[in-house]
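Hey, I'm writing a tutorial for new members on how sequence and structure tokens pair up, and I'd like a real worked example in the thread rather than a made-up one. If someone can provide the structure for the chain below, I'll link this post from the tutorial.
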Amino acid sequence: MNTAVNLTTPIPVDGLRARLGFWLRNDATRLLWPTRCLACEDPGLDGMDLCFACEAALPELEVACPGCALPVPEAGAVCGSCLTARPGALSEIHAAFLYAAPLDRLIPRLKFAGDLAAGRLIAQLMAERLRRAPQPQALIPVPLHRARLRQRGFDQALEITRPLGTALGLPVLDHALIRHRATQEQSRLSAVARRRNLKDAFQAWPKLPLPEHVAVVDDVMTTGATLRAAAAALKKAGVKRVDAWVAARVP
């Protein structure tokens, strides 16, 4: 079983800051530990580890195709590729941003440097944008295979999904999906090879009741092969509607 549980110890300063925030007034906590921008190290905005310049530079994805999350000219429009594609397991895909600065610094900071504070910031930014999306009954992080989880020590999708669920008041079903087959790194494969690589890689956890509408959550979407494979497993388990929520869409 791939139990997507964070196996690393949180950064001590972040934990101490959180505990002090519980006992002290917010203004006192800010004086002790002012926020800093996780993208450029400049002083952060009040209540956010992002500076004014980086916040203003966020590559927002205001109008996108619901089938692939790529930009389209007007709201509600579906791109030509999705119009001609066969219906898949995903009902809609929602990306908070395009994969560009400063997201291209924040996401690797979480994924490859193990900075869990970056995960919380990404979730905070996602929550502000995804409130406009159709709200599912639960969020399901895309899990790592147990071998990759042992190697990395944490699941980056889970570290985004937990605070995102808290911010939006949505339950997180972190054991609902299992990655029972180890796969190659998707970034090294072509689009066709990505789909083959992920065939039957996921399975819904047997006998776990699932709601009718869920959203699978991941950090980055490139071709969507991972998200579609996860959605297919959930649909096979009886979920009627599966959406995908991602922090960033690669253009």
